[in-house]
Write a structure and sequence with these properties.
This protein is α/β, with parallel strands linked by helices. It has helices spanning 24-39, 53-66, 89-94, 107-126, 137-154, 165-176, 182-189, and strands at residues 2-8, 46-49, 79-80, 158-163, 195-200, 205-212.
């Protein structure tokens, strides 16, 4: 039986012109996770990522941490799966909110952003809205389940999957056989560089852990915990 480690990317750049890059904290979170994996003696026979920049940067820093360095020196080439890319949060919000909304750079704007995002995701999962440029939710699920099927059919050891909150929450909901809307609540709880584990064999996946931060489990790292 193998173990699939699903890792959400490090903190990205919410509120900036380009969200799809790690913040300084996101880089430190990712490097620290790699150091934790190294201390555990973990090795991966394969790595799967989405094609977003924050996925690639997270993996680069994890790998650097595993190598015992803070410089990027990738040696294991990830398999790129576009089905592991995140939904378009702006398109989701626009599907339930006409007109512009404030950039989430203040606590009030941050709360409003995620209130609208939750509402939009719930409607998308139900099939009640079709965010511009996005697939149906059923097709989004299919892209993620295809990656899970590939892991089951091609691997038998430790596999790392680096993605975003939406795909990871969808994967967990899919494995649990939960309803489509369950992914919204799972998604909203996922923390940056959180680790979820699925045991797998050729027939199925089974949930072992969800949304854990063992690499940040120290008092001096409490302020490294983030959600966006």
């Amino acid at each position: 039986m193998g173990t699939l480690y699903l890792v959400r990317h490090g903190q990205a750049s919410l509120g900036e012109d380009d969200y799809d890059k790690l913040s300084e904290l996101g880089r430190r979170q990712s490097l620290r996770l790699g150091q934790y994996f190294a201390a555990k003696g973990l090795q991966f026979e394969a790595v799967l990522t989405g094609s977003l920049e924050r996925h690639a940067q997270t993996w680069d820093h994890i790998q650097s941490g595993m190598a015992g360095t803070d410089t990027l020196a990738p040696t294991l080439t990830p398999q790129i799966w576009t089905g592991l890319n995140e939904y378009d949060s702006e398109a989701v919000i626009a599907s339930v909110h006409a007109g512009p909304h404030a950039r989430p750079v203040t606590p009030e704007a941050y709360r409003e952003h995620f209130r609208l995002l939750r509402q939009g995701l719930q409607q998308w999962a139900k099939g009640a809205v079709a965010p511009q440029g996005m697939p149906l939710y059923s097709d989004f699920v299919q892209g993620i389940s295809a990656a899970l099927d590939h892991v089951r059919s091609q691997h038998s050891g430790n596999v790392l999957l680096v993605s975003s909150g939406g795909p990871i929450a969808t994967a967990v909901a899919h494995v649990l056989g939960a309803g489509a809307e369950s992914f919204v609540e799972l998604n909203m709880r996922l923390r940056n560089t959180a680790v979820s584990e699925l045991a797998f064999n050729p027939k199925r996946h089974a949930l072992l852990t969800f949304n854990t931060l063992p690499h940040l489990d120290a008092p001096q790292l409490a302020n490294w915990i983030s959600y966006a």
